[in-house]
Model the fold of this input.
Amino acid sequence: MATEHSRSVARLMMAPAVVLLLGWMLVPLTMTLYFSFKKYLPLRGGDLGWVGFDNYVRFVSSSSFWPAVQATLMIVGGVLVITVVLGILLAMLLDQPMWGQGVVRILVIAPFFVMPTVSALVWKNMFMDPVNGLLAHLWRFFGAEPISWLSEASMTSIIMIVSWQWLPFATLILLTAIQSLDSEQLEAAEMDGAPVLKRFYHIILPHLSRAITIVILIQTIFLLSIFAEIFVTTGGAFGTRTLTYLIFQRVLESQNVGLGSAGGVYAIILANIVAIFLMRIVGKNLDA
Amino acid sequence: MGRIQLKSVTKSFGDVQVIPPLDLTIEDGEFTVFVGPSGCGKSTLLRLIAGLEDITSGSIDIDGADATDVPPAKRGLAMVFQSYALYPHMTVRKNIAFPLRMAKLDQAEIDKRVEGAASVLNLTDYLDRRPGQLSGGQRQRVAIGRAIVREPAAFLFDEPLSNLDAALRVGMRLEISELHERLATTMIYVTHDQVEAMTMADKIVVLQAGVIEQVGSPLELYRSPRNLFVAGFIGSPKMNFIEGPEAAKHGAQTIGIRPEHIGVSETEGDWSGVVSVSEHLGSDTFFHVHETGLAETITVRADGEVGFRHGDRIHLTPRTDVIHRFDAQGLRIE
Done:
């Protein structure tokens, strides 16, 4: 019952929220753009004037840029593979009728509620500590020499920590997708002579394809910006300096706000490319 | 070939026995319809035959070989589901070809059979579409196509027409009957609609609470229902049941008389009552008659042109040769 009148009232009432959100987004965005064209060194002379695209060129030509891109891709890719594969398996497992299903499903989502800083600290001190960590005890129990995870296998460790955080998200989305699969389709495929693995490949996987795409895109956006996990574990050392971490170092450790801002603008562009794909796919999903 | 024999088959879900011991033989080439109200176990019975549910005890023979522990894919049966269960991400062609691909037939043979099935079912123009782009009737035909390419020993239909509108249902009913005439393959068809059962079946199996109430040809069930349940279930509109002194006159606890076996007159008759509702179908008219002193409502069928209206007092005369008599247990008295 949206009359002309009620629609304009609705717009008026939404306005404060929209204006607030817009300001929240536009102010930092404008500031980042503004600083990215300036030579701005807070502790070494402050605002030293406009420099055009100098910061953009310096950011990508720095020797740490390509290793950072590589580290970012490895973390994003590794976490995506682990969460999607394990997520599908876990989702199929949780879809089976079992005793205590409700409780188990809530437990599965639990890691998602732990703050990144906390979970990274827990992993670092309780599991990966080379002297007192649970994994070190496990290694010693089997007579092996404990690994100092964060320095020797730094990339693997961070991928493990982040995967642990994001697995519940993937599982949950994929579980709801699996639950929407018509069981008669599986029965039809069974009657048609498809054994378990072929049923998975021909029926379940295509059914999940859209959910998998959504998981990949949403996770990519968030994984591009992981920071706390690196900050509290390796501090960007041992080849774990991602783009986000590089920007942080440029701004706060090198105290070069202009250079960091230019990196930030690159990150914004990258995230938006992923977001466009996400919007199109989710939009298509809503239309269907 | 498709002779299916159920020997004292039972099925329990936990402590609840949904199918008490049941024996049934379905002859090769027969069109058998399982009919009964919702929850009578007819779909369960079909799924037991298909192998989608395990039987609790007893055995199922297909063509004389014990198939009790044979997995569904190896039983040589094809099933058409209520929801059609088409694979939404595949084209019609791939849907129909799926069982053949699973059976690892070579591509030329697959193409030949798919084209053949498509032309039989008028689907040739739609082979490259996806199920989502088809109408209900076309989806139904794709599901049937997927079943016939396998050349199964028997077809199982699980309420295949219940998602179609009334006009389409009549058309598909005819198509399935024609398909049966052409293929002469055993078909087992589950429905809750007694009209579908009457029009399509060679043999009707009436089920109630997992128990077979009666097995027979449509006309056998119509002419001599074995008990009150079958009498009330087969035939439309429903048979009238009369108890009390009027039944006692015929030496029965309950007598049943079909609406089409009662004559209607304005002036004279054995019974009389007041018309409450008259339904004019054009070809027929159904009167719901109250205040007869026999039962709450007596339904009668008259010619399409008979024009009594609400509140008219009319007279009814049953045809005594087709009165069905039932005893206190509800069983038929011959």
Summary: DSSP finds nine helices and 19 strands in chain B.
